[in-house]
Automatic annotation (TrEMBL):
Upper taxonomic lineage: Bacteria, Pseudomonadati, Pseudomonadota, Alphaproteobacteria, Hyphomicrobiales
Subunit structure: Homotrimer.
The protein, known as: Copper-containing nitrite reductase
Cofactor needs: Cu(+); Cu(2+)
Keyword terms, alphabetized: Copper, Metal-binding, Oxidoreductase, Repeat
Species whose genome carries this gene: Pseudorhizobium halotolerans
Length: 402
Protein backbone atom coordinates (compact mmCIF):
# COMPACT_ATOMS: atom_id res chain seq x y z
CA UNK A 1 0.00 0.00 0.00
CA UNK A 2 1.19 3.44 -0.83
CA UNK A 3 1.69 5.38 2.41
CA UNK A 4 0.68 8.85 1.47
CA UNK A 5 -1.44 10.72 3.93
CA UNK A 6 -3.94 12.99 2.37
CA UNK A 7 -6.41 15.31 3.94
CA UNK A 8 -9.64 13.88 2.55
CA UNK A 9 -11.63 16.73 3.97
CA UNK A 10 -9.61 19.51 2.41
CA UNK A 11 -11.33 22.68 1.51
CA UNK A 12 -13.64 22.66 4.48
CA UNK A 13 -14.57 26.22 5.35
CA UNK A 14 -13.73 25.98 9.02
CA UNK A 15 -11.72 28.78 10.51
CA UNK A 16 -10.73 28.50 14.12
CA UNK A 17 -10.02 32.20 14.32
CA UNK A 18 -13.61 32.92 13.38
CA UNK A 19 -15.02 31.14 16.43
CA UNK A 20 -17.23 33.66 18.23
CA UNK A 21 -17.41 34.11 21.96
CA UNK A 22 -20.26 31.96 23.25
CA UNK A 23 -23.12 33.74 24.92
CA UNK A 24 -23.83 30.80 27.21
CA UNK A 25 -21.82 29.76 30.18
CA UNK A 26 -21.87 26.76 32.43
CA UNK A 27 -21.27 27.36 36.07
CA UNK A 28 -21.43 25.13 39.09
CA UNK A 29 -22.92 27.96 41.13
CA UNK A 30 -26.59 28.71 41.44
CA UNK A 31 -29.52 26.57 40.38
CA UNK A 32 -31.37 25.64 37.26
CA UNK A 33 -33.88 28.24 36.28
CA UNK A 34 -35.60 26.63 33.33
CA UNK A 35 -37.50 23.38 33.67
CA UNK A 36 -37.42 22.29 30.07
CA UNK A 37 -33.74 23.05 29.89
CA UNK A 38 -33.02 21.08 33.04
CA UNK A 39 -34.77 18.00 31.65
CA UNK A 40 -32.95 18.29 28.39
CA UNK A 41 -29.54 18.99 29.83
CA UNK A 42 -29.81 16.40 32.57
CA UNK A 43 -30.91 13.67 30.19
CA UNK A 44 -28.16 14.52 27.85
CA UNK A 45 -25.45 14.59 30.48
CA UNK A 46 -26.70 11.39 32.03
CA UNK A 47 -26.47 9.76 28.63
CA UNK A 48 -22.91 10.88 28.21
CA UNK A 49 -21.93 9.66 31.64
CA UNK A 50 -23.67 6.33 31.14
CA UNK A 51 -21.58 5.55 28.10
CA UNK A 52 -18.30 6.34 29.72
CA UNK A 53 -18.47 4.95 33.26
CA UNK A 54 -15.52 2.78 34.00
CA UNK A 55 -13.67 3.50 30.83
CA UNK A 56 -13.39 7.18 30.15
CA UNK A 57 -13.00 10.40 32.01
CA UNK A 58 -16.14 12.47 32.14
CA UNK A 59 -16.29 16.16 31.60
CA UNK A 60 -16.23 18.47 34.57
CA UNK A 61 -19.81 19.52 33.91
CA UNK A 62 -21.01 15.95 33.59
CA UNK A 63 -19.24 14.96 36.79
CA UNK A 64 -20.83 17.77 38.70
CA UNK A 65 -24.26 16.90 37.40
CA UNK A 66 -23.91 13.22 38.06
CA UNK A 67 -22.76 13.86 41.61
CA UNK A 68 -25.88 15.83 42.37
CA UNK A 69 -24.26 19.18 41.74
CA UNK A 70 -26.04 21.88 39.86
CA UNK A 71 -25.41 23.35 36.47
CA UNK A 72 -26.61 26.80 35.62
CA UNK A 73 -26.90 27.88 32.06
CA UNK A 74 -26.82 31.63 31.91
CA UNK A 75 -29.24 33.42 29.62
CA UNK A 76 -30.65 30.17 28.30
CA UNK A 77 -34.37 30.28 27.86
CA UNK A 78 -34.72 33.97 28.49
CA UNK A 79 -34.07 35.62 25.15
CA UNK A 80 -36.62 34.27 22.74
CA UNK A 81 -39.65 36.14 21.53
CA UNK A 82 -42.23 34.69 19.21
CA UNK A 83 -42.08 36.50 15.88
CA UNK A 84 -45.82 36.95 15.70
CA UNK A 85 -45.91 38.32 19.23
CA UNK A 86 -46.38 42.07 18.96
CA UNK A 87 -47.64 44.55 16.43
CA UNK A 88 -44.38 46.48 16.50
CA UNK A 89 -42.43 43.35 15.70
CA UNK A 90 -44.64 42.76 12.71
CA UNK A 91 -44.36 46.36 11.52
CA UNK A 92 -40.67 46.99 12.10
CA UNK A 93 -38.02 44.40 11.41
CA UNK A 94 -35.75 43.65 14.32
CA UNK A 95 -31.98 43.64 13.92
CA UNK A 96 -30.66 40.32 12.69
CA UNK A 97 -29.10 37.95 15.16
CA UNK A 98 -25.36 38.42 15.23
CA UNK A 99 -24.14 34.85 15.19
CA UNK A 100 -21.67 32.53 13.62
CA UNK A 101 -22.78 30.32 10.77
CA UNK A 102 -22.48 26.55 10.57
CA UNK A 103 -23.80 26.06 7.03
CA UNK A 104 -21.54 23.90 4.87
CA UNK A 105 -21.09 25.41 1.40
CA UNK A 106 -22.64 22.72 -0.84
CA UNK A 107 -20.14 23.44 -3.62
CA UNK A 108 -17.19 22.51 -1.41
CA UNK A 109 -16.62 18.88 -2.40
CA UNK A 110 -13.20 17.21 -2.71
CA UNK A 111 -12.24 16.41 -6.30
CA UNK A 112 -12.86 12.92 -7.66
CA UNK A 113 -10.24 10.24 -7.15
CA UNK A 114 -8.39 9.06 -10.23
CA UNK A 115 -5.59 6.99 -8.70
CA UNK A 116 -5.61 3.24 -9.28
CA UNK A 117 -3.94 2.09 -6.07
CA UNK A 118 -5.05 2.09 -2.45
CA UNK A 119 -3.78 4.62 0.05
CA UNK A 120 -3.91 5.43 3.71
CA UNK A 121 -6.14 8.47 4.01
CA UNK A 122 -6.09 10.61 7.11
CA UNK A 123 -9.32 12.30 8.23
CA UNK A 124 -9.14 14.93 10.97
CA UNK A 125 -12.37 15.67 12.78
CA UNK A 126 -12.74 18.19 15.57
CA UNK A 127 -16.00 18.31 17.51
CA UNK A 128 -17.04 21.92 18.01
CA UNK A 129 -20.05 23.19 19.95
CA UNK A 130 -21.05 26.71 19.05
CA UNK A 131 -23.95 29.09 18.97
CA UNK A 132 -24.80 29.94 15.39
CA UNK A 133 -27.55 31.25 13.19
CA UNK A 134 -30.66 29.06 12.95
CA UNK A 135 -32.94 31.49 11.16
CA UNK A 136 -33.01 35.14 10.24
CA UNK A 137 -33.47 36.19 13.85
CA UNK A 138 -32.77 33.07 15.83
CA UNK A 139 -29.69 31.19 16.93
CA UNK A 140 -29.07 27.73 18.36
CA UNK A 141 -26.23 25.96 20.12
CA UNK A 142 -25.11 23.51 17.41
CA UNK A 143 -22.80 20.56 17.94
CA UNK A 144 -20.66 20.00 14.86
CA UNK A 145 -17.80 18.22 13.19
CA UNK A 146 -15.21 20.85 12.21
CA UNK A 147 -17.63 23.72 12.81
CA UNK A 148 -20.01 22.98 9.95
CA UNK A 149 -23.33 21.20 9.38
CA UNK A 150 -23.00 18.79 7.77
CA UNK A 151 -19.39 17.99 8.70
CA UNK A 152 -16.69 17.76 6.03
CA UNK A 153 -17.30 15.63 2.94
CA UNK A 154 -14.76 12.82 3.01
CA UNK A 155 -13.76 11.17 -0.26
CA UNK A 156 -11.77 7.95 -0.48
CA UNK A 157 -11.42 5.00 -2.84
CA UNK A 158 -12.53 1.43 -2.24
CA UNK A 159 -9.64 -0.46 -0.66
CA UNK A 160 -8.25 2.62 1.07
CA UNK A 161 -7.45 2.52 4.76
CA UNK A 162 -9.14 5.45 6.48
CA UNK A 163 -7.45 6.79 9.60
CA UNK A 164 -9.86 8.90 11.64
CA UNK A 165 -8.40 11.31 14.19
CA UNK A 166 -11.11 12.78 16.40
CA UNK A 167 -10.50 15.61 18.84
CA UNK A 168 -13.12 17.04 21.16
CA UNK A 169 -12.40 20.71 21.73
CA UNK A 170 -11.45 21.91 25.20
CA UNK A 171 -14.45 24.23 25.42
CA UNK A 172 -17.02 21.52 24.67
CA UNK A 173 -19.64 20.78 27.31
CA UNK A 174 -20.11 17.16 26.27
CA UNK A 175 -18.51 13.95 25.11
CA UNK A 176 -18.53 13.21 21.37
CA UNK A 177 -17.40 10.45 19.03
CA UNK A 178 -17.95 9.32 15.44
CA UNK A 179 -19.68 6.29 13.90
CA UNK A 180 -18.76 5.77 10.23
CA UNK A 181 -21.43 3.77 8.38
CA UNK A 182 -18.69 2.96 5.83
CA UNK A 183 -16.71 1.05 8.47
CA UNK A 184 -17.08 -2.62 9.34
CA UNK A 185 -16.52 -3.05 13.07
CA UNK A 186 -18.35 -2.43 16.37
CA UNK A 187 -20.03 0.95 16.54
CA UNK A 188 -18.41 2.07 13.31
CA UNK A 189 -15.62 3.41 15.53
CA UNK A 190 -17.86 5.15 18.04
CA UNK A 191 -16.45 3.52 21.17
CA UNK A 192 -12.89 3.86 19.95
CA UNK A 193 -13.32 7.59 19.44
CA UNK A 194 -15.39 8.59 22.50
CA UNK A 195 -13.71 11.74 23.76
CA UNK A 196 -14.40 13.93 26.77
CA UNK A 197 -13.72 17.64 26.20
CA UNK A 198 -10.03 18.13 25.46
CA UNK A 199 -9.41 14.49 24.57
CA UNK A 200 -8.29 13.07 21.20
CA UNK A 201 -8.56 9.50 19.89
CA UNK A 202 -8.12 7.68 16.60
CA UNK A 203 -8.97 4.47 14.78
CA UNK A 204 -8.61 3.08 11.31
CA UNK A 205 -10.89 1.09 9.05
CA UNK A 206 -10.64 -0.42 5.61
CA UNK A 207 -13.14 1.03 3.15
CA UNK A 208 -14.27 -2.28 1.63
CA UNK A 209 -17.69 -1.32 0.26
CA UNK A 210 -18.02 1.46 -2.29
CA UNK A 211 -20.92 3.89 -1.88
CA UNK A 212 -22.06 7.07 -0.21
CA UNK A 213 -22.27 6.68 3.57
CA UNK A 214 -23.34 8.80 6.52
CA UNK A 215 -21.16 9.37 9.58
CA UNK A 216 -22.48 10.78 12.84
CA UNK A 217 -21.82 11.19 16.54
CA UNK A 218 -23.11 8.24 18.57
CA UNK A 219 -22.86 9.43 22.16
CA UNK A 220 -26.18 8.88 23.99
CA UNK A 221 -28.69 10.24 23.57
CA UNK A 222 -27.57 9.69 19.99
CA UNK A 223 -30.65 11.32 18.49
CA UNK A 224 -29.81 14.55 20.29
CA UNK A 225 -26.21 14.62 19.09
CA UNK A 226 -27.39 14.03 15.53
CA UNK A 227 -30.25 16.52 15.71
CA UNK A 228 -27.89 19.19 17.02
CA UNK A 229 -25.75 18.87 13.88
CA UNK A 230 -23.31 15.99 14.27
CA UNK A 231 -23.51 14.26 10.89
CA UNK A 232 -21.74 14.23 7.55
CA UNK A 233 -20.90 11.88 4.67
CA UNK A 234 -18.06 9.87 3.19
CA UNK A 235 -17.96 8.76 -0.44
CA UNK A 236 -16.11 5.51 -1.05
CA UNK A 237 -15.48 5.68 -4.78
CA UNK A 238 -15.66 2.44 -6.75
CA UNK A 239 -12.67 1.28 -8.76
CA UNK A 240 -12.47 3.58 -11.75
CA UNK A 241 -14.47 6.25 -9.90
CA UNK A 242 -17.86 7.71 -10.72
CA UNK A 243 -18.44 9.01 -14.27
CA UNK A 244 -17.27 12.63 -14.63
CA UNK A 245 -19.85 15.42 -14.33
CA UNK A 246 -19.57 19.20 -14.57
CA UNK A 247 -20.39 20.07 -10.95
CA UNK A 248 -20.90 18.25 -7.69
CA UNK A 249 -22.82 19.41 -4.62
CA UNK A 250 -23.04 18.17 -1.03
CA UNK A 251 -26.45 18.50 0.64
CA UNK A 252 -27.78 16.99 3.85
CA UNK A 253 -31.19 17.17 5.47
CA UNK A 254 -31.61 17.55 9.20
CA UNK A 255 -34.17 18.17 11.94
CA UNK A 256 -33.91 20.61 14.83
CA UNK A 257 -35.98 20.25 17.98
CA UNK A 258 -36.45 23.55 19.76
CA UNK A 259 -38.51 24.30 22.82
CA UNK A 260 -39.80 27.45 21.13
CA UNK A 261 -42.08 27.25 18.07
CA UNK A 262 -40.73 27.62 14.53
CA UNK A 263 -40.07 31.29 13.77
CA UNK A 264 -39.23 32.36 17.33
CA UNK A 265 -36.46 34.86 17.91
CA UNK A 266 -33.32 34.87 20.00
CA UNK A 267 -31.29 31.95 21.28
CA UNK A 268 -33.55 28.90 21.09
CA UNK A 269 -33.30 25.87 23.39
CA UNK A 270 -33.26 22.21 22.41
CA UNK A 271 -36.31 20.19 23.48
CA UNK A 272 -35.81 16.60 24.59
CA UNK A 273 -39.52 15.72 24.71
CA UNK A 274 -40.08 16.86 21.13
CA UNK A 275 -37.02 14.86 20.14
CA UNK A 276 -38.40 11.70 21.72
CA UNK A 277 -41.78 12.34 20.12
CA UNK A 278 -40.09 12.99 16.74
CA UNK A 279 -41.72 16.42 16.43
CA UNK A 280 -39.07 18.79 15.09
CA UNK A 281 -39.80 22.51 14.85
CA UNK A 282 -37.29 22.93 12.01
CA UNK A 283 -36.37 20.90 8.94
CA UNK A 284 -33.23 22.22 7.25
CA UNK A 285 -30.73 21.64 4.48
CA UNK A 286 -27.06 22.16 5.43
CA UNK A 287 -27.64 23.28 8.97
CA UNK A 288 -30.07 26.15 9.13
CA UNK A 289 -33.02 27.91 7.53
CA UNK A 290 -31.98 29.58 4.26
CA UNK A 291 -28.51 27.99 4.23
CA UNK A 292 -29.04 26.85 0.63
CA UNK A 293 -31.24 29.72 -0.49
CA UNK A 294 -30.06 33.16 0.59
CA UNK A 295 -26.72 31.99 1.91
CA UNK A 296 -25.28 29.36 -0.45
CA UNK A 297 -27.56 28.97 -3.50
CA UNK A 298 -26.14 26.36 -5.85
CA UNK A 299 -25.20 27.72 -9.27
CA UNK A 300 -24.78 25.97 -12.61
CA UNK A 301 -25.19 26.54 -16.35
CA UNK A 302 -27.43 25.23 -19.08
CA UNK A 303 -25.74 22.27 -20.75
CA UNK A 304 -24.02 21.10 -17.58
CA UNK A 305 -24.68 17.88 -15.71
CA UNK A 306 -24.73 18.27 -11.93
CA UNK A 307 -24.42 15.57 -9.31
CA UNK A 308 -25.88 15.99 -5.84
CA UNK A 309 -24.59 13.87 -2.99
CA UNK A 310 -27.71 13.92 -0.85
CA UNK A 311 -27.79 12.57 2.69
CA UNK A 312 -30.36 12.49 5.44
CA UNK A 313 -28.90 13.07 8.89
CA UNK A 314 -32.35 12.71 10.38
CA UNK A 315 -32.27 11.66 13.13
CA UNK A 316 -35.86 10.49 12.66
CA UNK A 317 -37.67 11.43 9.46
CA UNK A 318 -37.48 9.87 6.00
CA UNK A 319 -36.94 12.38 3.20
CA UNK A 320 -38.78 12.41 -0.12
CA UNK A 321 -36.06 14.30 -1.97
CA UNK A 322 -37.25 16.20 -5.03
CA UNK A 323 -36.06 19.07 -7.19
CA UNK A 324 -38.99 21.21 -8.34
CA UNK A 325 -38.88 21.61 -12.13
CA UNK A 326 -36.37 18.85 -12.81
CA UNK A 327 -36.26 15.10 -13.27
CA UNK A 328 -33.35 13.06 -11.96
CA UNK A 329 -31.75 11.57 -15.06
CA UNK A 330 -29.81 9.08 -12.91
CA UNK A 331 -30.23 8.02 -9.28
CA UNK A 332 -27.90 5.81 -7.29
CA UNK A 333 -30.53 4.66 -4.82
CA UNK A 334 -29.43 4.42 -1.21
CA UNK A 335 -26.00 5.66 -2.26
CA UNK A 336 -25.20 2.27 -3.80
CA UNK A 337 -22.81 2.62 -6.73
CA UNK A 338 -22.21 -1.03 -7.56
CA UNK A 339 -25.28 -1.35 -9.79
CA UNK A 340 -26.21 0.91 -12.73
CA UNK A 341 -28.25 3.91 -11.56
CA UNK A 342 -32.01 4.14 -11.97
CA UNK A 343 -33.05 6.55 -14.70
CA UNK A 344 -35.77 9.18 -14.98
CA UNK A 345 -36.95 9.55 -11.39
CA UNK A 346 -39.06 12.36 -9.91
CA UNK A 347 -38.67 11.83 -6.15
CA UNK A 348 -36.22 9.74 -4.16
CA UNK A 349 -36.87 8.23 -0.76
CA UNK A 350 -33.87 8.73 1.49
CA UNK A 351 -34.08 7.16 4.95
CA UNK A 352 -32.69 8.73 8.09
CA UNK A 353 -29.05 7.75 8.16
CA UNK A 354 -29.12 7.07 4.42
CA UNK A 355 -28.18 8.70 1.14
CA UNK A 356 -28.72 8.97 -2.59
CA UNK A 357 -26.64 10.27 -5.47
CA UNK A 358 -28.66 12.08 -8.12
CA UNK A 359 -27.58 13.49 -11.47
CA UNK A 360 -29.40 16.10 -13.53
CA UNK A 361 -28.62 17.43 -16.99
CA UNK A 362 -29.60 21.10 -17.06
CA UNK A 363 -31.44 22.25 -20.15
CA UNK A 364 -33.65 25.19 -19.19
CA UNK A 365 -32.41 28.27 -17.28
CA UNK A 366 -34.10 29.41 -14.09
CA UNK A 367 -34.42 28.62 -10.42
CA UNK A 368 -34.97 25.02 -9.34
CA UNK A 369 -35.89 24.32 -5.73
CA UNK A 370 -34.63 21.39 -3.68
CA UNK A 371 -37.31 20.15 -1.31
CA UNK A 372 -38.49 17.22 0.72
CA UNK A 373 -41.80 16.45 -1.01
CA UNK A 374 -43.33 16.05 2.42
CA UNK A 375 -43.97 19.69 1.67
CA UNK A 376 -45.08 20.89 5.08
CA UNK A 377 -41.37 20.81 5.83
CA UNK A 378 -40.83 23.70 3.43
CA UNK A 379 -42.86 25.77 5.90
CA UNK A 380 -40.45 24.65 8.61
CA UNK A 381 -37.35 25.82 6.77
CA UNK A 382 -36.40 23.12 4.28
CA UNK A 383 -35.52 24.48 0.82
CA UNK A 384 -32.52 24.96 -1.42
CA UNK A 385 -32.00 26.79 -4.69
CA UNK A 386 -30.27 25.55 -7.81
CA UNK A 387 -29.92 28.61 -10.05
CA UNK A 388 -29.25 27.77 -13.67
CA UNK A 389 -28.02 30.36 -16.15
CA UNK A 390 -27.88 30.11 -19.92
CA UNK A 391 -29.82 30.25 -23.12
CA UNK A 392 -33.56 29.69 -23.08
CA UNK A 393 -34.72 26.42 -24.62
CA UNK A 394 -38.19 27.14 -26.08
CA UNK A 395 -38.35 23.72 -27.69
CA UNK A 396 -38.36 22.23 -24.17
CA UNK A 397 -40.18 24.86 -22.10
CA UNK A 398 -41.90 28.09 -23.08
CA UNK A 399 -45.01 30.12 -22.32
CA UNK A 400 -47.98 30.20 -24.67
CA UNK A 401 -49.26 33.67 -25.47
CA UNK A 402 -52.94 33.96 -24.65
CU1 LIG B 1 -21.72 14.26 19.95
Amino acid sequence: MNRTERDASRGMPYNDAAEPPTTQEVSQEGGLTDDSLSISRRSLLAGSVGLTLGSLAVSQEASAQNAGGTVRVAEHGTRHVNRVGSLSQRLYSLPSVVADDVAHDPSVVPTSITRQESEIVRVDLETVEKEARLDERASFRFWTFNGTVPGPFVRVRVGDTVEVYLKNREDSWLMHNVDFHAATGPGGGAELTSCAPGEAKAFRFKAQNPGLYVYHCAVPPVAMHVANGMYGMILVEPEGGLPPVDREFYVMQGEIYTNEPFGSEGLLNEDYDKLLNERPEYFVLNGHVSALTDHYPMKANVGETVRIFFGNGGPNHVSSFHVIGEIFDRVYLNGSVTKPPQTDVQTVVVPAGGSAIVEIKLEVPGRYVLVDHSLSRVERGLAGWLDVEGKEAPDIFEPIAS
